[in-house]
Amino acid sequence: MSDAANPNPNVAALLARIAELEQQLAQSQAALEATQAQASVSAGVVTGDRAAPAAAPNWPIEIAKSDLDFVLITRLSDDALLEVSHYFYQITDYTPAEIQHQTLASLNLWADPAEWQRCKQQLQAAGLVEHYELQFRLKSGEVRVGVLSARVFDDRGEPRILSILRDLTELKRAIASLDTSEALFQAVTHPTDQFLFVRSLETGAFLYVSPAYETIWGQTCDSLYQNSAAWMAQIHPSDRSIVTRSLEEQFANQSTVREYRIIRPDGDIRWISAQIQIMGDRDGRPSYVIGNATDITRQKQQAQSFQQHEQMMAATPDALALIDTHYTYRLANQTYLDWHQQPRATVLNQPVATLFEPDFFQAIVQPNLQRCFAGAVVRYQHWIDRPKGERCFVEVTYTPYREAGAIAGALVTIRDLTTLQLAEVNLARHQRDLALILQTVAIGIWHLDLSTGDLVTSDECKAHFGLEPTAEFSFQTVFDIIHPNDRARVQTAVNEAIANREEYAIEYQVIWPDGTVHWLSATGHVIYDDAGNSVAMDGITLDISDRKQIETTLQQQAQQEQAFNRVVQTIRQSLDLETIFTTAAREVAELLQLGEAAIVQYRPETACWRHVAAYRRDFHLPDHHDNDIPDRDNPLAERLKRREFVLIANTDTLTDPTNQNMAQTAPGSWLLMPLIVNDTVWGSLSSIKSPEPLSYTEAEIDLIQRIADQVAIAIHQAQLYTQLHANETRFQHLVANLPGVIFRYVLRPDGSHYVAYISPNAAQIWGVDKAAIEQDDQVLWGQVIPEDAAHLQHVLTQAAQTLSPWAVECRVVNPDGHQRWLQGIAQPTQLETGEIAWDGVTLDISDRKTTELALQTSEQQISRILNSIGDGFLTLDREWRFVYLNSKAEQLLHCSREELLGQKAWDHFPEAVDTKMYHHYHWAIAHQQSVAFEDYYPPLATWFEIFAYPFAEGLSVSFRDITQIKQAEQELTRLNNALSYAVEGISRINQQGCYQMVNQAYATTTGYTPEELIGLPWQTTVHPDDHERLAAAFQTMLQTGSVEMEAKGVRKDGTVFYKQVVMIAEYETTEALGQHEFIGHFCFMKDISDRKAAELALRQQRDRERLLGSITRRIRQSLNLSYILRTTVNEVRQFLQTDRVVLYQMETTGSGRIIEESVASGWPTIFGQELYDPCFSATYTDQYFQGRVRCIADINSGEVTQCHADFLRQFGVRANLVVPIRQDRNLWGLLIAHHCQGPRQWSAADIDLLKQLSEQVSIALQQANLYQQAKLELKTRKQAEAELQQFNQHLEQRVQERTAQLIARTTELEALFQAVPDLVFTLAVDGTFVDCKTPDYPLLYRPLSEVLGQTVGDVLPAPVATTLTTAIATTLAAGTLTRIEYPLWINGIERFFEARLVPLPSDQVLVMIRDVTEQKRSEMAIRNQALREVLLRAITQRIRQSLNLEEILATAVTEVREVLQCDRALILYFTSESSASVLQESVSPHFPTLTERYRHDDCFPQTCQAHYKAGAVRALSQAALAQENACIAEFLQIMQIQSKLSAPILLPAATRSPQPQTPADQRLWGLLSIHSCATVRQWTQDEQNLVQRIAAQLAIAIQQSELYTQLQQELQERAIVEAQLRTSLEEKDVLLKEVHHRVKNNLQMVSSLLSLQAGAIDDPAILKLFNDSRSRVRTMALIHERLYQSNNLAQINAAAYFRDLAEDILQSHLTSTQTIHLHLDVSNLEVTLEVALPCGLIANELILNALKYAFADHSAGEIVLRFSLDNNYYYLVIEDNGVGMPQIGQDLMTYIQSSSSLGLQLVYGLTQQLGGTLRLGYQDPATQRGTQFVITFRQTA
Length: 1837
Description:
Largest sheet: 6 strands, antiparallel
Helix content: 40-55%
Strand content: 25-35%
Number of helices: 53
Radius of gyration: 56 Å
Shape: flat
């Protein structure tokens, strides 16, 4: 434990005292805040927030009882004391008698009377002071400090002052004491590097944490205060158990020391030494823990470094010893001791002579040591004999060892060079063997001198470049022969090999002098000299043209397969022909590098060929796609129509004019491939090679043919889908327009049932969507009313037994509670499965049922409606007699109907005469305009709201009791008057968020008048930053009823203030409904700007101290001056919120340089610039050294010189703050803050902060200088160590030089040897393996130890051994090179090898074996690819020619089995997720068939399902098959399956869509499975790809077949449905006609009843009303009569309808004295009932009005009715040439609302119902005669 770990003995007591003071401070601050709040509230309560009483207040007595505040009530004029609280006596020690008749001055209460007078002046001016600090004097004379809040109030006309004072003296003293303790604590804790802490034993919380925690742990102190366990989380996992155990022991020992590691957030690991001490309270009980934690990482690192040096010395392979000048051993490592086989005790401190023979010591050792002591480095080599008889060749080096500059001994190093010496012996043998191999193998060898550029090569290397052995060969020659495309790559590879000291390896092309292109592989390495410079390169070359040719062929085939697969995938995933055509054209053009590829469609109807898709790579070709290609006189078209493909090698050879013209815009080579769809030429896939004619290869023609086949399949598939979609559309259109729901209901033999199909509009009737019904038909049965469900079930049972149609009516209740009447009609069908299916329709007959019921109950409803009106309603005639009144009117007037009917209103209610009511009624009758007003009727003590509507015969009156509302308004008015004088801001905000009421205090705070605020939104007075917070608080208020928060407000002048807001929701309760409706909320506001300003000042002060502390700690913890200065300017700029902060270092010349800068974005940087201010003289330098601070708020204010302002302006500076940095009695520089965006007033706190920071920067500078001096001293100390290291380096260099000389050539030759990609053996004449030249060859047939010394017959299989033995004999006999090839199975894989045998002396041969597996596989892949293409073509052709799925599948399995040479191929179809059946199978006769066996397989695992659904192929060998589940394993064994290969057949999961589908959208239809039964087979990737592609083609075929089958089936089903629909529609027509007939009869009956009733009425007005009603009923009946007689029940002929209507009106209403002609101009339109009925009623009203009023003088006239449809708008015009209406020219809406004409109001209402407009004008504007009504409305779908 270091001394740093022991804390200062006074720290414990100091920390305890600080903890107590912090608690006192917290309590005092809480008390201060409570005082301020209570003072504010108390003052407000007494004088403002509650309405102040007019008489003498009695509240001072209550306040006097409070012991919270020091309360005074004084007279304003003379400060006479009127009343005080009891706390006043307690604190001042006065008695009540002593203060009687006293003033504040006579008591000498205020310590500073002048300050009280200033406070009083402010109080008189504002009427209020808050938180005013004053000193007051006790009776004893002691002066104390308090905070005062006071307000002036009026008491019986006399102004008085209410003052509330709280004593803050103890709080002030506590704060002062705390400041002193804090300063002392900072002095004790800040200079130390220790992390000091105090922690409570009771809670575990940290009471104090010193700032060093942030430095050591890398976390903030606040994080530890918040989470006391945070320090434990960083303890190294390996040390946590140690710390935990130590924590447990500390209570027993009272003091604990522990060491452990922590992991900082930046990943740095540090060692910590911690010491803790348990401290007790005054009673001796353990209370808290005091401790410190010291960072001992540096000590640990030093100890570890020393240990590493010892380990390094022990680990070095050299023997080391240190001998002093007295020939005594001082040090020796273990290697040296082992070398002499002596223990350490017998060597150290012993004479050197004891370890050597005397003669050897005197002759060799002693002379060399003497030379070393003289200062020479001695080195020699010799052979020595080790004690155990070993003979070694060693190098011994003596190096002088110095201490304090003098030679103090010799460092002896012994290095074993035996291995190196023996390497020279083996070098010659290696060179001989390698030279022989290089003569045999076709490898070129080259050597390049990098300094001279000379190139030396073998003859074989020249041959690789197409040159003769005698040809001159240089690096430039090589570079010229390299293909231009590869020269840069070669040069780069050479440069990188030299730069990176790595091997050089590259493949590139060369162009021989004869123009042929060859591929070479070159490898080599760089040779370096002693200085590490590259001097030469050695390497070899191989001709790899054959391999590259095979790779190119395979790559082209792979690209073609990928393009073909993309086309197939597009066809599978989409039915959009445009997408398919575009994909096919693009893939063909890009893959074959065509100028253009296009899809051309043949159009026989126009005798032309038209481009439907094209893709151009050559944009120089003109765009000719808009031009049709003529079919007539076109020989190429004729060939295409004969299904021949057309190949034009050169368009210049064309002779016919049609194609010659085409060739002018598309020259080159053409290939036109016919597209045959349904045995007909649909078009062609055309391709153009341009610009120069190029030929097409057979592979290219074959690829285009295959893609054309796929495009033809896609076209056929799209045609089928289009036809199916058209049928589907027609069917859906039919279903959508059918007035009912189509369904198929199926009954199973077991009695269960389900809905197989229901039309999409099912939700309109059943209230449940289609999917839910088809999933569970109980949702339908559950809706049927129980009494009807039994009848319905009986009908279905009878129909099932007799297979007869059924029809039934029933009632259902939808999920939303709506009841309907439904009628169901269905026809049965017996299915093959034994099920019975009913196809039928369900009709909603609710309207019919409802109409029948409505006709019966309409009269009762009218009667109930009249008496259910919530308001009183009465009717008076022109004699003011009561004609009618409802029950509510009886209740409100307190009179019965019998008492009032026939009585005059003013006789029965004489008090109403000459009242507002009286005059308004008479005015309404006189002016025939409605009135609305409120009036109070004293006899009933009731307020009424009255609406009076005049008409020709009298006055209709509607009225309601609003007495409670009026009382509430009066109460609200009184409350508003009271609230307007409240001190706190109060407002009411309505539902729309606008001010509805504000008091004066609220308006004053916001800077508005109350009138200005009314109607403004609440956002007007809220700062935009708090809009979202206030909106969120509003939502909280809606949930909880109230909410309180603080926010920023905005006054009218734009100034910002802080406010405290309380929002309380207001609700209106509807007692009848028991509901609460939100109608707005109240907002109570208080200005808290002063408190916020104080909090901001405290926070800024704390932030400044924290910033200063952070920078100070950084200076103490780091020696990186640049980091300290950079961080300082960054943090200062961010803290001051300014635009630039710089550090300016002064030069002796008067100029200076910006060495650090932090600048905001958008302003120029001046970092690193040399600056010279011409206005900065030596005088300023002296002033700044004396401490001058320069503060400029605005350089444009004139307070700075012009030259200095110009100097600052060039950097964008507007305000400037400069403080000096002094260092070593000199002015080092300046710390400068720039404000660029505008002027700035620098605060005293800003200046003080920069001054303190400049002092800290000065400390950092001094610390950095000291650090540099320490580094210099350390460098001097390390020079001695460097001399020792220099010796080792020199010795290592000598060894490397010698080693390089011995093995340089060996390395070069071995590198060349290893570059040979062959296995090299030496074989004897009898086939014995003599040795192996490449022991690291990766593909050895057997381990090398089992090969050497054995014969080929012992090692290799018999056939291979025989072939190799024969080749040995042939080679030795002929003396020439012999080549053979043979296969071998290695690691379960068959590989192919080529062996070349070269004769050697002594009847031996050199055999070089090369792996040619990839070449052989490539050749076989090409052959297999051709066979697979034939197979794929056959299957594709079968798909194109047939829709017979069985035939297609049978062809596929037969040909797949033949091509893949397997034992079984089959198509497996999944009938469910776990069951499948075999649809087609092709099997060898030697093995069983699976057709019946695989009928039901319940063992198919879900994992396989998921695998196949992802589209992956599954290839399984025997080992993988054995891991299947028991059921499948047993099945595979019975079926003799050794290996199998399966590819999924995936189809879209739902109805095909033109949009592409993802794999997740597809379903697994089945598998194409291949079995190998005779042998275990490894399925190649090509075989897997082939099977997958065939499965994709089969998926297309299945889709086509399903589409075709579905099309045929749906055509049959839809024929049946259409027949049923026709029957259903006929029945519906009959039903609707019956409904219209019955409605027409009922309406005619009503019309007749009205006519009969009218005959008994003498009153003309009532008779007129009856006649008008009869005419309207007749108008509606006429529509139903027309519909009943029409064949179209949905629409009616407008011309016939208006003609019949007009004739009926004229016959019924035209008098004998009138000669009125009606002219009809109606278009022959069919309109719906929704249009005909409103238009008929409008026409009826307007024609009747014209007959009644336009021709009142019985003159002749004309009425015109026009009805037309123009541009989707209907126009109904009715005009007459009568006298006209006096209201023309007035506002139509006003006139209609005030009119007593029910007919005109009906016209307006019907126009609104139609969504139209009504316009009124003159028929003849010139004479202003006649009337014209124009109704306009939009035609709806």
